[in-house]
Amino acid sequence: MATSFKQIEENLKNEARKLLEDGKVSLVLAYGRGYDEKHPVPFVAKIAADVESIVFNEYCTANMARYLVRYPRGTKMAVAVKPADSRAVVQLIQEDKVKREDVILLGIPVIGMKNSKTGEVIDSKTTCGLYNPVLYDVLLGEEIHGQPVVSPYDVLAQYEAMDKDARFAFWQKEFDKCIRCYACRKACPMCYCDPCFIDQNKPKWGEKSPQSHGNLMYHLTRFHHLAGRCIDCGECSRACPVDIPLYLFHKKVARECEEMFGQAAGKSIQDKPVLVNFRVDDSDKILE
Amino acid sequence: MKKTAIQKISDLAAQLMQKGTLIAPVQEDAGFNFREVSDARQVDLNFYNTLMSPKSAFFPQMEDFVRYQTGKSVLEAVPVEMGLKPVFLFGVRPCDVKSFEIMDIHFSGTGAVDPYWQKRRENTVIFGYAFDVNTPADGADFYSTLGIGAADPEGSDVFMMKKSDDLLLKAVTDKGEKLLADMSGLTDATPDDLKYFDETVAAGRSFKTRFTCVEAKSIAKKFEDLFHKTPFWERISDACLSCGVCTFVCPTCYCFDICDETLFGQGTRRRVWDACMFTDFTLEASGHNPRTKVYQRLRQKVCHKYSYHVRKYGVISCVGCGRCTRNCPVNIDIFSIVDQAMKE
Amino acid sequence: MVFSDSSVLLKGKYMSFEPKILGIACNWCTYTGADLAGTTRLQYPQNLRVVRVMCSSRINPSFIFRAFQLGADGVLVGGCHPGDCHYNTGNLYARRRLAVTKKILEFSGMEPGRFRVEWISASEGNKFAEVVTEFTEQIKNLGPQTKFKIVQ
To answer: What's the pTM value of the predicted model, to 2 decimals?
Structure first.
């Protein structure tokens, strides 16, 4: 029996208030009301009085972990995290972008999150499919048990079965829609590079203009940069104004990394990200 | 005034396609978008508003200017010919029509005339399309706050309005008059239609979207006063990702970048859209960047539209179409920023 | 002289097609191996354009994507055998990284045979010549690469 959104909101507000009043953190990353109920906005509470503006409902899909790197190192922060978001924080800790002792994770077990644009329920098709956060300091609701375990990679079967030319035509069509707004990059908690490769001129990795080849270079390279780091929150695809199914490619790369290297992103703070690690007995079969 | 049955809209579209290029809203994966129509049956007026604004009809996202070859003299570079056929921009909502007026200020109203914008503007016949005054506005729109009516015909060449199963077409300019006279298959409007048209235009003027009393000069002054109040701007920009979607979908944003893209010795100098929200928008050749923080960039965007623009040109650079709010990945509402500022 | 159609066809699908193949070779092993192939006068197809890097882990996957965009029909990467890297661990990172590159290329719809990674040591001049010959033949059969190639 999952805790109701209303109850989670109550718990979140209480925890946030306590943490701010006790001075344990200087900010709490949570959600606030937007122009209507269905469109909550990320909200940062800095004093106890701010806590009144915090909300939590099924439309709070934003991954709050992406704001962690904005604050100076050493800032004590609390962050409201859903399962995928907690993986993002773990990944950031692995990559030393934030220290474990500087962040307090307010874990939220969820079921039934909805996409504000389409009203669809968000499940393992477009996100990691976990119900409980992988790491937390405080759990704001009851752990969810007994749900059917659906692999987040099931959705790939249809695309892997496609003939390679059909698949290329599919991706060509999708990338042609891209307007190079870079919402995907900014929505992603792992895209914190400054400058991003695509903004560089010497060397110029890809063209700036929104043409087929520049778009392909941008997206393929981005998929590569997120290999073994993408925690499958699906925010990139939700942020995209033209609905490119980026999550498909990210899931594919995530699954390959899991199979080849035996490790999924953002699971344990003791892990090292897969591409900055190696095992002497990695099989040469992975290159076939 | 003329009219035609909505069912027969593809006939109208086909005629326009014979005369030139038809750009109309077409259904795509993510919503409706203005596209060059290749099949008259694609034209669909069953939409609220398009995803991207129609500014790309005059100010395309990518525009080639000059082709050159490296190693050759600059005098041998070839300017790209525009080669335009007449263009019909079909189904533009009143707020978007107003945006063209505001953009005209920048592209042709300040002394330096952008010949690409100018030519496209002259070459295009705009078919405006009234909002339905009997349906509540979308929650993100706020055009009535900026003095734009739901059925304002000003700015269009031909203004279209739905009347149950018919589409009324009124010529607003000489260009529109000439075109309508030249088209077949349109019936004359009845006196009843004319009355309906005027009544709807009037109803459009009092049609309320989200509304706050907005007076351009006082907003402009308020933002000037707030410029140095950093805590306000930091609070406002807490959620902002600084991605650039709002700029790209906005009908009145006009920043661009000129880049030279060369491959194998052949290159093109082209103009592409840029956004003040991008981190390196103000990155200078020295390496210094005056706007490294998100709040500085968001402050720039909001103040430009609601303050500096008013000071310089007397009009707010926003038409309340709501696209920024609808498409923002984190649901930020630019209008609420204005609201909050007024309350500071 | 008249060549019958069938004899022309027997030589491979694209008889007149000479592929452009980018070879990225690590300085200490593969490049030296290639050198050995040269000094022992081994014959192998001239389609390979070799770029020398100090270690296979210097290879940025974007090089591979960019190479295909710029018209390469095939890309062949050569490095030291895992465990024998001149810098101890470079090729161990490269193995993982290039494996991901391969998977990305495949999922995007690029023909899998166009990108290959081989471990060729400094003493394996023969292997170098064999690999290049085999790879060139494979690319000839696959034909010109059109999917990623930029058309201006």
So the answer is: 0.93
